[in-house]
Amino acid sequence: MDFAEKMQRCHEYVEALEEERRKIQVFERELPLCLELVTQAIEACKRELSGTTEDHNMHGQSECSEQTSSEGPVLEEFIPIKRTHSSDDDENDNNHDDDDHQEQQSQNKNKRNKSNSSISNNDHKKKSDWLRSVQLWNQSPDPPQKQDLPRKAAVTEVKRNGAGGAFQPFHRENSVGKSSHQAISKASPSVPASATSSIAGAVTGGTGGGGNKKEDKEEGNQRKQRRCWSPELHRRFLHALQQLGGSHATPKQIRELMKVDGLTNDEVKSHLQKYRLHTRRPSPTVHNNSSPQAPQFVVVGGIWVPPTEYAAVAATTTAGETSTISAANGIYAPIAAPPPAVPQNRQLTQSEHLQSEGRGSHGERGTHSNNSPATSSSTHTTTTSPVF
DNA sequence: ACTAAAATAT
DNA sequence: AATATTTTAG
């Protein structure tokens, strides 16, 4: 009978749902309704299962509800963004907006005013367990973001955290620049919340003319809110770098390429610095794989490839076409294909050898050509060789 | 008290 | 733009 079959299917579905619930459990704070929905669905299904047969009139749809159909309508409810302004800007889907009209929003270049006063807020303090406290969206009291859901538009700044990896919570702290002279009055780094089904914005966006809340207490100072270079952000960074052919890229170019709104030159610059730093021979006496136990794929020829990286970069670029880029990839983000999934494994294979990384340290994974260790920097690999 | 990362200064 | 220094979050 097909009945049994149905039961079976239903059962499976419930299991799937439960697993799903486990997954989002962590984000209870961010997705309370989502959790609730799933829970309800599970219950409904179970009821149906146990409640025996027929009369699935009322909740007949429960099972299929979230799958797809209801998704649309419901989705809106989940979107944290409350658009206060009645005027819905709906037009800004995916136009171009490549241009940088992003960072400027209220990013004043003023030097910091020296006015200084008391800092009175500590709103954070009680975030001990991150997983829980991680916020996909900043819950900062200001959702001034004009551009909401960028949808598919890549341009904006949709970034996601998490995924397979590490993501760090955003910190929203206001430390006052108590520096003696100069105070920045850069715009308040308000954070947008953009979400696409499972995506959360990771990048802050400037406030538009939106209107700041009363948050910034009349002080123009404040050390810029730290920008969190989430894996995704970094991914974009790398991507941009690749497109520019290596490290020569100027921060400005990089920033533009990244198309992340709210990202400033300085931030990129800083990040670039760090990147180069790490990129350039972490050398002296760096023995990577130390553990005799053969950490499967540690490899790391390279340098500084944050956990989540690999896949991301690979993915993007692979999809991409640029040959040159690939080279770049090879260089900086060659490694590590984690056990789980990830179809494309490159040359991660021989990991075992402790490889005389020794002093050279530079991972020369590059299929070919590589700079000499000491003298030249790693940079040119891409830039020089490929025709540009 | 230490470190890495980001911000800011030169 | 490159590097150096300072500040700060973990």
Task: Summarize this structure as a short list of keywords or feature phrases.
388 residues; mainly alpha; DNA-binding; DNA binding; Myb_dom_plants; transcription regulation; Transcription factor LUX-like isoform X2; HHO5-like_N
Per-chain topology:
Layout: H1 2-25, H2 32-50, H3 62-65, H4 71-78, H5 130-133, E1 195-196, E2 199-200, H6 231-244, H7 251-258, H8 265-279, H9 309-319, H10 323-332, H11 380-384
Antiparallel strand pairs: 1-2
The structure holds a DNA duplex (10 and 10 nucleotides).
Biased composition (Polar residues): 59-71, 344-353
GO molecular function: DNA binding; DNA-binding transcription factor activity
Biased composition (Low complexity): 183-202, 368-388
Radius of gyration: 25 Å
Biggest beta sheet attributes:
2 strands, antiparallel
The rounded distance between the terminal residues' Cα atoms is: 67 Å
Tally of strands: 2
Structural class by sheet pairing and helices: mainly alpha
Give the spatial strand order of the biggest sheet: 1-2
| Shape, principal axes of CA atoms | globular
| Number of continuous helical runs | 11
- DSSP strand content: under 5%
Q: What average pLDDT do the residues reach?
A: 52
Query: Residue share in helices?
Result: 25-40%
Topology as a string of helices (H) and strands (E): HHHHHEEHHHHHH
Low-confidence segments: 53-216, 285-291, 294-303, 306-388
